[in-house]
Amino acid sequence: MSNVPTFVIDGLKASIEDKEILKGIQLEMKGGEVHAIMGPNGTGKSTLASALMGHPKYEVTGGSVTLDGEDVLEMGVDERARAGLFLAMQYPSEIPGVTNADFLRSAINARREEGNEISLIKFIRQMEKKMKELDMNPEFAHRYLNEGFSGGEKKRNEILQMMLIEPKIVILDEIDSGLDIDALKIVAAGVNAMRSEERGFLIITHYQRLLDYIKPDYVHVMMQGRIVKSGGPELAEKLEAEGYDWIKEELGIVDETVEQL
Ligand SMILES: Nc1ncnc2c1ncn2[C@@H]1O[C@H](COP(=O)(O)OP(=O)(O)O)[C@@H](O)[C@H]1O
Ligand SMILES: [Mg+2]
Fold first, then answer.
1. Molecular function (GO) terms listed (predicted)?
2. Does residue 79 belong to any structural domain of this protein?
3. pLDDT of 165-182, one tens digit each?
């Protein structure tokens, strides 16, 4: 039996406060693949991540999103998570009063059938193992979720969640921001260890640097709320060497942001 997920975004449009940000996103990915979405600031990358997870602030106005043929847009946020979607946010929220360990255990159990919850012992063993892999201080298990975490600690914690939840489709929004090079390597190793046929990755990043450590199969460039160019890893290398201006010239784009339209 094949457990290779298929994730299809077809003509996705989304607005915020009646302003259209996403103008028809087209992207198909399968388990085993790593897709990178690159682009300057303000081009709609985080909006895409939020719309895919069902953030209530973003109104989807057109197109479809399916995971293994199931209509994702029909699902609530928790149903999307249960179906196997996971988003590591650019700016993770702080949740005082909920410990990291409690949050993680609930998130794991939400993906499991009732009556098949993970035992406390097994959970703690797994959590401690993954925290060690991510070089996290064990005390982070008992801290309130993200409260007082530094930027880099939040990012590591997002990867810890991903490792324990074992999603089918992982969306990482600027997971590299705020990380020094050692932390970046640890986070990248965590992601690479999770790469398998059973899981697809959508890696959103402003900088090419992350892609030196997580090798993408496909690279897409976003401007003005659309994917304007796609290619292989060589596209990311060209962007590192030459920046984004040549794409703008090639496509006759003066301002790449969504704002100025
Ligand atoms: N919550 C929001 N409220 C108002 N405008 C928003 C909000 N989120 C995004 N936008 C606007 O949408 C555009 C794209 O933003 P975003 O998706 O964050 O871009 P990126 O992640 O590529 O930097 C920007 O013009 C931004 O101001
Ligand atoms: Mg962003």
1. ATP binding; ATP hydrolysis activity
2. yes
3. 999 999 999 999 888 899
Residue nearest to atom 4 of ligand 1 (CA): 16
Q: 0.85 cut: is pTM over it?
A: yes
Domain that holds residue 77: 6-93+165-251
CB 37 within 8 A of CB 24: no
Residue 245's domain is classified under what CATH number?
3.40.50.300
- Nearest ligand 1 atom, CA 50: 17
Q: Is the CB of 39 under 6 A from ligand 1?
A: yes
Rounded Cα–Cα distance for residues 45 and 50 (Å)? 9
* pLDDT tens, residue by residue, 44-63: 999 999 999 999 999 999 99
| Position in ligand 1 atom list of the atom nearest CA 225 | 14
Give, in degrees to the nearest 5, the angle at Cα 245 between 208 and 170: 35
How far is residue 80's CA from residue 51's CA, in Å, rounded to a whole number? 11
Q: Does 178 fall in a domain?
A: yes
Closest ligand 1 atom to residue 257 Cα is: 25
